[in-house]
Amino acid sequence: MKQIQIANTDIKSSQIILGCMRMNEAGKNPVDVIQTAYDQGINFFDHADIYGGGACETIFAQALKETNISRSDIYLQSKVGIRPGIAFDFSKAHLIQAVEGCLKRLETDYLDTLLLHRPDTLVEPEEVAEAFSELEKTGKVRAFGVSNQNPSQIELLKTAVKQPLNINQLQFGLKHTGMIDAGLNVNMENQAGLVRDGGILDYSRIHEITIQAWSPFQYGFFDGIFLGDTDKFPELNAKLNELAEQYHVTPSGVAVAFINRHPANIQTVIGTMTPSRIIEATEAADILLSREEWYALYQAAGNILP
Ligand SMILES: NC(=O)c1ccc[n+]([C@@H]2O[C@H](COP(=O)([O-])OP(=O)(O)OC[C@H]3O[C@@H](n4cnc5c(N)ncnc54)[C@H](OP(=O)(O)O)[C@@H]3O)[C@@H](O)[C@H]2O)c1
């Protein structure tokens, strides 16, 4: 699988990441899930302190022991800054305490990357800077990034934070293409032309920030999966099926290839806890869709080009 170099780090990650948000779901086999992902070339695993109220990190650490994978074979990322019952908290005390919790549950001495999960409007960049410096100095976190942030929020953090911020995890997939739509409809009066993210796609390319696309198969905000939903998305599924047949892969593989094809070197964070679906998503990772195929998929998803 294609490797993505995270700028300013020695991290070379698989383009596909396994997201562990659903690892506490009943009836799943985390050992099989982790081993299958690794055998398919995935070496990067995404967590957050709030997934399953912490249970997902605990389950992951337990399961990892039953695989043939060592801690040093993989990259572990977690996210902090959301506090259920309070909202968001980027204070120094909370960030440090939250990371301590991640390390304990993941049974590791360090996180390869730490992301701030969702913007905290009460953020004081100096507090984040102090937290990051302490976490770096004590060897608890190797590299830092953000999630769901726009360019000016990143610039605000950079007024105090010394460490490079080279990852931004954002929702992106065939049915969630806002950061592309606006760029294709510059100065138009239609809805697609609205810039909702401050131009994060181009900003990320200019500043060598790796975008990690979360929920690649969802439409809306966890409204459901577009794959196979021929009632709501007949044209999109027809196109996915056609290309899947042509490339001898599955529609989910084509949906991943759509993201991976973008020259911004976007990573795709898949969240399935079904080993066969991990194989389906990864087997098409390196297919290079033609421009014609890519734009046909984009339009089949309901987007109109000017
Ligand atoms: N930064 C953020 O704010 C944020 C927010 C949300 C998520 N995330 C990250 O993104 C990761 C992925 O999110 P996600 O789980 O919503 O993404 P997803 O990969 O789009 O969706 C996975 C879900 O779709 C189901 N599914 C149904 N049919 C499928 C098929 N053919 N192929 C694959 N999956 C199918 C899976 O069920 P089965 O498990 O039963 O296969 C699973 O429940 C999370 O684990 C988390 O790491 C980050």
Notes on the protein architecture:
There is one protein chain. By secondary structure, this protein is an alpha/beta fold. It has one domain (3-300): TIM Barrel, CATH 3.20.20.100. 37% of the residues lie in helices and 18% in strands. It has 11 helices and 14 strands. The chain has helices at 30-39, 55-64, 92-106, 125-137, 151-158, 178-184, 200-206, 234-247, 251-260, 275-283, 291-300, and strands at 3-5, 12-14, 16-19, 44-46, 75-80, 82-83, 87-88, 111-116, 141-147, 165-171, 210-214, 218-219, 224-225, 267-270. Strands 3-4-5-8-9-10-11-14 form an 8-stranded parallel β-barrel, surrounded by 5 helices. A two-stranded antiparallel sheet has the order 1-2. Helix 3 packs parallel to helix 4. The protein starts with a strand and ends in a 6-residue tail after the last helix. NADP nicotinamide-adenine-dinucleotide phosphate (NAP) binds at residues 19-22, 46, 147-148, 169, 214-218, 225, 227, 252, 269-274, 277.
| Domain module count | 1
Shape: globular
Name the helix and strand elements from N-terminus to C-terminus, one letter apiece: EEEHEHEEEHEHEHEHHEEEHHEHH
Structural class: alpha/beta
Q: Could you name the ranges where pLDDT drops below 50 across 5 or more consecutive residues?
A: none
CATH architecture: Alpha-Beta Barrel
The whole-number mean of residue pLDDT values reads 97
Bound molecules: NADP nicotinamide-adenine-dinucleotide phosphate
Q: Find the CATH superfamily.
A: NADP-dependent oxidoreductase domain
Give the biggest beta sheet.
8 strands, parallel, barrel
Portion in helices:
25-40%
CATH topology value: TIM Barrel
Output the number of helix runs.
Answer: 11
Strand arrangement in the largest pleated sheet: 3-4-5-8-9-10-11-14
Oligomer: single chain
In whole angstroms, how far apart are the ends? 35 Å
Percentage beta strand:
15-25%
Please write the CATH class name: Alpha Beta
